[in-house]
Amino acid sequence: GQQVMQIPQYQHVQEGEDFTTYCNSSTTLSNIQWYKQRPGGHPVFLIQLVKSGEVKKQKRLTFQFGEAKKNSSLHITATQTTDVGTYFCAGYSGTYKYIFGTGTRLKVLA
Amino acid sequence: KAGVTQTPRYLIKTRGQQVTLSCSPISGHRSVSWYQQTPGQGLQFLFEYFSETQRNKGNFPGRFSGRQFSNSRSEMNVSTLELGDSALYLCASTLRLGGDLSSGANVLTFGAGSRLTVL
């Protein structure tokens, strides 16, 4: 069945360093969404990408959707302690379900 | 507007018992999806309902079932609980899953979850 993998599984960075998480799907996706889950919380929507090669920015966060629509990345510039949490990608390829990636847990050291 | 409400937030059960979890979606949202979250497996899709119809089901045993009511509220049931069923159960509502995938109608809004512990 469809699988969505994310790397790395964990990332510890010093505050101010950059961070990137990568998402790879075994199948072509119709769209991809990114979510952030703070410790003890629930996933919260960040952004949605639909077009091949699409790039979107939200302040220090940059999201990309691959040309083949099978991979995506999230890059955070100059991390802050408020960026702590687990970042998930979620891919949709039809059939009324989003498949979530395995997640990348980010820890920011002050 | 009110968010997605899940009840109960925490519950403890013993093996062999059954449990029912409830999810009230955002007003106007007609699609409800359920996920199981565990440290080792991440978020695993359980099922999706739209207008009282189950449109998709994940790879879980028949002990896991669900339903949706005419007001879009949804319940899931787990029978004959096993230790491995201990998890955070999350429901998410959307305006309309599928359709125009470039629209915000496909954004999943999650509830706070129901944390189930099976002893």
Can you tell me about this structure?
The complex is a heterodimer of chains A (110) and B (119). Chain A is mainly beta and 110 residues long. Chain A is built from no helices and 11 strands. In chain A, strands 2, 4, 5, 9, 10 and 11 form a 6-stranded mixed beta sheet that branches. The radius of gyration of chain A is 13 Å and the shape is globular. The model of chain A has no long low-confidence stretch (mean pLDDT 96). With 119 residues, chain B is an all-beta fold. In chain B, 0% of the residues lie in helices and 50% in strands. In chain B, strands 2, 4, 5, 6, 9, 10 and 11 form a 7-stranded mixed beta sheet that branches. In chain B, strands 1-3-8-7 form a 4-stranded antiparallel beta sheet, with no helix packed on it. The chains are: A mainly beta (110), B mainly beta (119). The interface between A and B is medium-sized, with 25 and 28 residues.
Secondary structure blueprint with pairings:
The complex is a heterodimer of chains A (110) and B (119).
Chain A (H helix, E strand, L loop, with lengths): L3 E4 L2 E5 L4 E7 L5 E7 L6 E6 L5 E4 L2 E5 L5 E6 L8 E8 L5 E3 L3 E6 L1
Parallel strand pairs in A: 2-11
Antiparallel strand pairs in A: 1-3, 3-8, 4-5, 4-9, 6-7, 7-8, 9-10, 9-11
Chain B lengths: L4 E3 L2 E4 L5 E6 L6 E8 L3 E9 L2 E5 L6 E5 L5 E5 L8 E8 L14 E2 L3 E5 L1
Q: What profile does the largest beta sheet of chain A have?
A: 6 strands, mixed
Number of strands of chain B: 11
Distance between the amino and carboxyl termini of chain A: 41 Å
Contiguous low-pLDDT stretches of chain A (5 residues minimum) are none
Helix vs. strand class of chain A: mainly beta
Helical proportion of chain A?
A: under 10%
Shape of chain B: globular
Individual helix count of chain B:
0
Order of helices and strands of chain B: EEEEEEEEEEE
Q: Which of globular, elongated, flat, extended, rod-shaped describes the shape of chain A?
A: globular
Strand content of chain A: over 45%
Q: Report the radius of gyration of chain B as a whole number of Å.
A: 14 Å
Distance between the termini of chain B: 37 Å
* Largest interface pair: A-B, 25 and 28 residues
Radius of gyration of chain A, in angstroms, nearest whole number: 13 Å
Q: Give the oligomeric state.
A: heterodimer
Flag low-confidence runs of chain B: none
Helix fraction of chain B by DSSP (H/I, runs of at least 4): under 10%
